[in-house]
């Protein structure tokens, strides 16, 4: 009387290897170890390891479609961990060529840069715009604090030296042009001296443009009643020259 020989599946345990990468990098190859049992000579597993989709910083479980009809597979998962990437700031040497100008530092991550001035009596900053207020030296620090996917960048400091207020201005024009009354309450006038007309721009001390008048004629009234009390910068521009003045609004 014959009997059947029953061949049962061989149990094995497959354990995924933990993997790591930084944000923005290519995934490493997903690998595994057979930690219990083993494949018989010539046998192979079909399928592959996969992970949960996503590219932001975080932990992503590794899964498996590995199979062989002759094996009972126990799969032990692991994780792919995505860490924050580092970043750097490029901030070139500063040269004073205008009294209101924009910084142009960049980060390798593409994230926005913030700036601070160590001496706000010399220069103030609003966004990317610096406004020069007086002769002196200030350290301008470019910073990028990072986000969910990037570490904070190392700060970069550049020295801004102001030898002369109104670096871009016509010195003779600066001496000739007068703003009055100064301090003022509701209005000011600008004596343009030899200029027929000019563009007038008023800035806050943080560099925000508050008013612009085209084709201003000498001694015409400029209404400043809407401005808050404080110091302001007034830029006088023609097609060929310019100068900067300060005035105080009471």
UniProtKB/TrEMBL annotation:
<dbReference type="InterPro" id="IPR041286">
    <property type="entry name" value="MBG_2"/>
</dbReference>
<feature type="domain" description="Secretion system C-terminal sorting">
    <location>
        <begin position="179"/>
        <end position="248"/>
    </location>
</feature>
<dbReference type="InterPro" id="IPR026444">
    <property type="entry name" value="Secre_tail"/>
</dbReference>
<dbReference type="InterPro" id="IPR008964">
    <property type="entry name" value="Invasin/intimin_cell_adhesion"/>
</dbReference>
<keyword id="KW-0732">Signal</keyword>
<feature type="domain" description="MBG">
    <location>
        <begin position="12"/>
        <end position="81"/>
    </location>
</feature>
<dbReference type="Pfam" id="PF18962">
    <property type="entry name" value="Por_Secre_tail"/>
</dbReference>
<dbReference type="Pfam" id="PF18676">
    <property type="entry name" value="MBG_2"/>
</dbReference>
<protein>
    <recommendedName>
        <fullName>Por secretion system C-terminal sorting domain-containing protein</fullName>
    </recommendedName>
</protein>
